[in-house]
């Protein structure tokens, strides 16, 4: 492996600094218009490459981001994603322990299963009508399963931030939507691993790796919960964070090398980390790692956007993007409302659940990127589904405002009883 020159290293550092600065500007702009700031960060990263190409051509983009710089940024962005997912997995496990009441079960099941079916139906429609140029050449089973997951997920980190910004974390709708999203995302990640593992046509090795990861989680977590590991975590949280980061990157690399998505390797390490105890503040160590990943995520979005324009994108399938967006909104809002009502909640709470369960955000971006990297999604379809993701997520805040106005002063106030306490609260991962 050749050692990069000083000029190459300086070029990479300058590109990294520029990406992070632009991401900060995107967050500030979207915060000013009362949208989740992370959507501004995502949007800036995704459109930066296409905008440069549209204004100045591919030659200028290649000069700004030559192959060696883009390769370095790809590694940085991928590492940031893995470290961020460690925090997400740990948070999902912690939040998941609080779920289990009747309303959560209804909201999760009605939002998840019909959305899976709708995504599968959309995949079959695209397969029949879009042709190989749009669908790609991955096995049909992986394609159907990936779109089913893409329709079903609800973004826990973005949802948590929206609830905090609006003072809804302690409300019935906020609590139910977040807990239901946690319940749904765990099987969604497992299904994603199966879809990506089967994209090569052979499920035997990926299935064995998946089973091995699950067994490792069950075996390693009790070992970390007490004894020397817990004592070391309490004594050296910074060193523990370094070891967790190294373990995450190594396990993620190993699972990808063995035919399973690296995302599942990062998730496996996150689920291995035990809950906090009096002797071991594991969440503090995980939080340090996740914050580093959080800061590097804009690089992941930039590389994703540049990858889109570098591939054979062809004409944007606007009709497909419109169709999948309408279907995604319809199924998530209808089933979110239905789940709330079946769970015994009021009409107003059901409406708020309908809006909140339609939040896809960062989780959807990661799912789509995994499918794109595995060759399951073609560049045009990937771009169309990214558009659907941003549209559905940006709808959440305006829909909640409309519902608050329609509910009247009394119900609108009741929907935000803890605004003073929850304003500015952040999830463990720091994503907004």
Automatic annotation (TrEMBL):
> Which residue ranges run through the membrane?
12-30, 42-61, 73-92, 104-126, 138-164, 176-197, 203-220, 232-252, 258-275, 296-314, 383-403
**Ranges where the Cation/H+ exchanger transmembrane domain occurs:** 20-399
Cross-referenced Pfam families, in alphabetical order?
Answer: Na_H_Exchanger
Kindly list the places in or outside the cell where this protein is found, as annotated in its UniProt entry: Membrane
Q: Could you tell me which InterPro entries the record lists for this protein?
A: Cation/H_exchanger_TM, CPA2_transporter, Na+/solute_symporter_sf
Q: For this UniProt record, give its keywords in alphabetical order, as a comma-separated list.
A: Ion transport, Membrane, Transmembrane, Transmembrane helix, Transport
**Descriptive protein name:** Cation:proton antiporter
Report membrane topology: Multi-pass membrane protein
Which Gene3D superfamilies does the record match to this protein? 1.20.1530.20
